[in-house]
Amino acid sequence: MESTYEKIISWVEDIKERNHSSGAALLILKNNEIVLEHYSGYQSNTINAVPINENSRFNVASARKSYLGLCMAFAIYEGKIHSVEDYASKYFEDIDPEILGKTTIRHMVTHTHGLDENHRGEILREFKFGESWAYRGINIKLMTQLIQKLYGVPFPELLYERVFSPMGLVRTKWETKDNDELVRVIIDPKNNGEDASGSSDDGMESNLFVSTREFASWGSLFLNKGVFNGKQIVPKEVIEIAIRIHTPKDLEKDLPRNGMFWFVQDIPREMSELGNRVPSCSHQILGVTGPTLLVIPKYNVVVAKMYNKRYNYGNDNYLYYLKEFSNIVADNFNK
Question: Which residues does residue 71 pair with via DSSP β-bridges, in sequence order?
Answer without folding.
Answer: none
